[in-house]
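As a warm-up, study this chain.
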Amino acid sequence: MRAINSLKYLASTLPVALTSAFVAAILSFPANALAISFTTQAEQDAFMKEIRVDEKLGASIPPDLRFTDQSGRPVRLRDYFNGKPLLLSLNYYECPMLCPITFANLAKSMEDMKGLRPGRDFSILTVSINPDETAKEASEKANETYAMLKGFPNPASWWPFLFGGEKEIAALTGTVGFRYKRLDETNFAHPSVLIVLTPDGKVSRYLYGIKQEPNDLRLALLEASDGKIGASAALNKIILYCYHYDPVGKKYAIAAINIMKGVGAVVLVVLVVLILALRKQEKTRHDA
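Now compare it with the structure written out below.
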């Protein structure tokens, strides 16, 4: 019971927007599976301070960090900086609750997102934070995730699942400010966040929660690419002008002031055209 109570506390204080699905998964999980127990509130507070995201916008991902993909092929992170924005997901493959829900929700958000397609406009990269995991766990998680994707061909080419050593994991998570804690041999407590990277591997935005709204995901990707993905760069610029990221709500919101400026500019242009037309009409009458 103490473990379950501790998990409830963890769910209520994680810096993410947790949903009822996650809470239900926690409550249905065996109490002895995750042996988290605290005897004092101070212990709980100390534990939670270690599980957070220290945002490092503009930080550059170390390009030469070496990992292995789900097929057993050695790779470097620079291999995934291919001219398109990249969604970086830090998880672990034997995660019993949070990670599977996160992957399922991301698949659904991509399905519902208008105008952008994975592979063509952006890529996803998942890296395990568990240094003990191998190609077996990575491959199983990759295949499980690919089965959720509908209408997206060849997902292995744009959503690899990597694993690596403790040193490489620490370097990557340290760069992006991802703070987590190992609970036992196979379980970790960690934030639920997608890290949006620019095409050259710089941190552009953090998207929190186990579910990303399709519009937030689209705007974050457009922002990371400076509007250079999708069908119309000009339209993307207008969309980005009309929205701004709300650091308090951790969401994209309509930028009312920008819209008012835009409407004001249109009205001004219309007035100028109307005045010029009236002057031209008056001049024609006078000459006649």
